[in-house]
Amino acid sequence: MMHDIVRDLALEIAKEERFGAASDCGTMVQMDKDVRRLSSYGWKDKTEIIIKLPRLRTLVSLETVSSSPDMLSSIFSESTYLTVLELQDSELTEVPASIGTLFNLRYLGLRRTKVKALPDSVEKLYNLNTLDIKQTKIQRLPQGIAKVKKLQHLIADRHDDEKQSAFRYFVGMPAPKDLSNMLELQTLETVEASKDLAEQLKKLMKLRTLWIDNLSATDCANIFSTLSTMPLLSSLLLSAWDENAALCFDTLKPCSTELHKLIIRGRWAKGTLECPIFCGYGTHLKYLALSWCHLGEDPLEMLAPHLPNLTYLKLNNMHSAKTLVLSAGSFPYLKTLVLKHMPSVNHLVINSGALPSLEGMYIVSLTELDKIPQGIESLRHLKKLWLLDLHKDFIAQWHENRMHQRVQHVPEIRV
Questions:
Q1: What CA–CA distance (Å, rounded) separates 347 from 366?
Q2: Which of 167, 197, 286, 367 has CA 20 to 30 A from 173's CA?
Q3: More confidently predicted of 284 and 39
Q4: What is the DSSP letter of 179?
């Protein structure tokens, strides 16, 4: 971290050079009108003020307390050269229509604000590269969003369940009518599946990250066929419309080896592990997160032969066998293993030679796990070990077996 003296010196030089300024005093004080970059935290101004910063290029204002759009209107009218506007975690409820005057704006961040809608004038932001409205109250994108031809990163969803316990705790946005015209898109999170989505995605060949929500069994064939043609796609999330809807992956056959991160939320159709995405392509996957898949057997034993190069594996909200076994040689490159909300599991066995590269193991909310994971002390590269919210007898077992001494090579242990 930057030493306070060095930080103060850096801020003073930035101020003298009119390069930037920072304010964390809770209210905006008089600023040099020629400042070009301004960072503030906890802005508390509640009165109507006029802010004249004509040279301002970047404004980062985190956790702004003021919800009045007047403050923003003032900035928009006076700071026409603004290129970066980050208002993450603020109390903001409304974005003034005058935002459409910010011709130079390239980044607009409204993540975790209370904004319920974007003004139609957003379509005038011709130079916008990134729009981040993740975890807001916004339910629909402006009709003219496809007119923003230079948009590369569109990150948009709303969280209906802050505790993330419900199956669809986050909900995607309906695809814009002219989505197929947004040819520069590299990131699209999160879009709702529909009967037209496969056709809309066919021209978006620059996509690298794509999250799709609300998938039904009837959507899979066409949408997955389109995804298979994307040469640059590297990160993909697929979420069913319902926890009982079975997704069929027969037509998901990536045309390149770029896809390395796969997140699936929902049941699998029978025979999924024999589908091309796992049987054959699985060697290219590095990151896999599965939720609500309910494989019914030992998912670790089932997945290991197909995914030898994984570095990250998360299993969440899954019904499985009572005993999970990691055989010798399984997951040789895995760095992180997360097992969460697996109510059937009461025993975990780690055979010698399994998980030789593991650095982080997070076992959380396995409420029937009453035994110490067998072989856990053999994980010599482990740096973080979390064993939380397990069976009520687990802690007593841990202390009775003097496990802290047996895994004292692990720097961070939480039990």
A1: 10
A2: 286
A3: 284
A4: G
